[in-house]
Amino acid sequence: MDYQEIIKYLKRQANAKNVEGMARFGINPKNTLGISIPFLRGLAKKIRSRYASSNEASRDLHTLAIKLWNSRIHEARILASYIDEVEKVTEKQMDEWAADFDSWDTCDQVCGLFEETPYAYKKIIEWSKRKEEFVKRAAFALLAGMSVHNKKAPDSTFIKFFPIIKRESIDERNFVRKAVNWALRNIGKRNRNLNKAAIKLAREINKTNSKSAHWIAKDALRELNYVRIKLLGGKKDV
Question: d(Cα 174, Cα 197) in Å, to the nearest integer?
C-alpha cells in the first residue's frame, strides 16, 4: 500500500458518530475520521508485513510515515508513529511532531515511538519546560511510558526527574496534570525503593499551594499505597 492508497482506505473507514464520541473524551475532532486504535494497529501490522517483503522497505517506511504525518489527518498521524523506523527518527522530527500535537491521544501514541529513541530522556527535560499543553504532556507521557518499558534502567534514572514532576505539578491544565500524575504513579510501581520514594514525593507535592498539585498527590497516593500493600507488602501509608 502506498501513501495514496492508505489515505483513501482510511477515509473509507470514516465514522462521524465515532468522531462525536471521541470529542466527548477530549479528542480534537478536527481532521479526525473516527477510527479506533485497534484498527490502526492492525493496519500498521499489515503495512509493515508488506513492506518487509519489498526491497524498498528500509527506505520507504520512514518516508511513508513522514508523508502520513504531513497529511494532518488524526488517524494517519497515529498510524505514522506505528510504522516509522525508530532508528531513523531524529531530534528535529521529534520536535516538529510534538509541536503539531493537538490531542492527548496523538501525543500518547506517538510517544510510544519516541520513547525508543536515544533522545527520549533529553526531550523529557526540554519539553517539560515548554508552554504548549501537549508538548509538556509529551514530556510526562514519555516518562510514564519509559518507567514501564525500560526494565533495565536503575532507580536513579527516574529519581532524577522528581524535581521536574514536583515543579510541573502546579500546572492546572487537565492534560498536563493527568500526565504528571501518570508519570509519578508509573515510577512508583516499578519496585519497592521507587514506591517508597514516589510516596514521599507525592506527600511533598500535596503540601504545595495548588489545586492541581493536591489532586495529583492524593490520586497518586491512593494507588501507590495500594501497590505497597498488594504487591510490596508493609503498612499502609495514610
Answer: 25
